[in-house]
Amino acid sequence: MTPTHPTVTVPLYRLAHSRTGDKGNRSNISVIAWHPALWDVLVEQVTEAAVAKQFAQRRPRQVTRYLLPQLQAMNLVLDDVLDGGVNDSLNLDSHGKALSYLLLDMPVTVPAHLAPHFGGHTA
Known about the structure:
The protein is an alpha+beta fold. The protein has a single domain (7-114), classed as Alpha-Beta Plaits (2-Layer Sandwich), CATH 3.30.70. The chain has three helices and six strands, in the order E-E-E-H-H-E-E-H-E. The longest helix is centred in the middle third of the chain and has 7 residues, at 39-45. The two termini are 24 Å apart. It holds the Pfam family AtuA_ferredoxin.
């Protein structure tokens, strides 16, 4: 993205939707682009470091990103993020199903010309 082109900052849910799964103390969060034109922005900004920062209060030990470019999707694996997991946690969401909402709230800066490809609800 060149700074000379107009940009807009929106929550990630305007660029992608998500599904979440868990196993033990590990959460898998998939991020799927609403449109192929948004894929490069997702790869550029939804990095392991950016996701770790978004989840800082949950203190993930590690974030690993797996890219699936043919699907314009990625899978993010967050280790030690579920307070011990279903059997060990007093957390109300020990399964981590709602963690995708925390990720989808992450701000992303997008070239303004891509706005027609946005999905999700408008604020």
